Amino acid sequence: MTPALDLIDLKELEAAISGRICVPSSEEYDQTRQIWNGMIDKRPLAIIGARRR
User: Fold this and answer.
1) Could you tell me how many helices (H) and strands (E) the chain has, helices first?
2) By CB distance 3.0 to 4.6 Å, which of 35, 38, 47, 50 could disulfide with 22?
């Protein structure tokens, strides 16, 4: 069973990083999770985009 990412967890994660967070309810989620290997198709709880400092 896949664990859920609740709103509190998401807010804590947003406060701890400087990158962008994309979750399944985000409009850009499917485009962001585009796959390179068609044999592997995962749906992560969150995708974090690193930001260069």
Assistant:
1) 2, 2
2) 47
